[in-house]
Amino acid sequence: MTSPLGTVAAFGPYIIDVLGRPVSEIPPGQGGIVLDEIKMTVAGTGGGAAVDLAKLGWDVAAYGAIATDALGVFLRAQLEQYGVDTSGLAVKDGVQTSSTILPIRANGERPSMHVRGATALMHPSDLDLEVLHHADALLVGGPETMPHFLTEDGIAVLSGFRALGKPVFMDLLHSGAPAEQATLLELIAQTDWFMPNDDQLRALTGLDDLVEAARSVLAVGAGAVAVTTGADGALLVRNDAEPVTVPAFTTRVVDTTGCGDSFNSGMMTGILIGCSAEDAALIGCACGALVASGLGSDAGITDLDGVLAVIAGENADAAARISARLTERSTR
């Protein structure tokens, strides 16, 4: 892509991941194992998505909380290498930058050890709303990790952005504590697209059937729901259409870290350039397949052309439709 598609604000947890693979077990005592690869990346439903969106051709503005430690310095520098505007990152004292250790199993599974850190201190007053409102779209990742946003002030941030006629997308990092879920649903009601994974949606709603669970979220006010379902792809549930399953793409799974964030970035890209929801979800699934093929949430994706090549390999008609949308957008 030769010019940015537009500007997206990526708001949520900005996390440093330290990953190693393959890890079959944690050695007892002071034992050790030799790994094939160790990597440190920017991750989280804010940070991971920000990197992916930048790779796909968007101007990205980062909004989240970091600390003054070496991890925060690394995080900011990495984002800026991808062209992400980091001026919206709030710096918090007395804590460390949110971080996670991820021993990746040979099959791609990823148990985690996490420090909540600065993310939990993010506050609505940390946002410059005048600047935020310049973005063309807002991604809210993991609001349940920022308790100060599970408030009327947090809801007002989303409703104020949406009142400008601009779309709001949301994902979760986890399903939230039971005491938080009523407010979380009020936040979700301010979204045009809610994009959880299947486990998160079931935990949030208490419903096992995914279509029924998604419809219960639509009933509170969300515009549409895209549920990622791992190797099965994604499920789209809307008020004006029958539920649709969009298939995943074939890939060799190395590490599933960041696959949900990459799906969100691809899905948003498709919606914002005017694709159908089904084609937008295909972009998301292709992004997820690419990220799963390497270590860390920044793996796999190079640019939007590379994502389209993955789609073309299994669905040439869809790739042609998406390319036509991009051409139409660039000639406006």
Please describe what this structure looks like.
The chain is an alpha/beta fold and 332 residues long. The protein contains eleven helices and 13 strands. The chain has helices spanning 44-55, 70-81, 129-132, 152-162, 181-188, 198-205, 210-220, 259-272, 277-292, 304-314, 316-330, and strands at residues 7-11, 15-21, 37-43, 59-67, 89-92, 99-103, 113-115, 137-141, 168-171, 193-194, 224-228, 234-238, 241-246. A six-stranded parallel β-sheet has the order 5-4-1-8-9-10. Strands 3-2-6-7 form a four-stranded mixed β-sheet. Strands 11-12-13 form a three-stranded antiparallel β-sheet, sandwiched between helices. Helix 4 links the parallel strand 8 (137-141) and strand 9 (168-171). The longest helix is centred in the last third of the chain and has 16 residues, at 277-292. It is globular. It starts with 6 loop residues before the first strand and ends with a helix. The model has no long low-confidence stretch (mean pLDDT 94).
SSE order and pairing:
Layout: E1 7-11, E2 15-21, E3 37-43, H1 44-55, E4 59-67, H2 70-81, E5 89-92, E6 99-103, E7 113-115, H3 129-132, E8 137-141, H4 152-162, E9 168-171, H5 181-188, E10 193-194, H6 198-205, H7 210-220, E11 224-228, E12 234-238, E13 241-246, H8 259-272, H9 277-292, H10 304-314, H11 316-330
Helix pairs in contact: 1-8, 6-7, 8-9, 9-10, 10-11
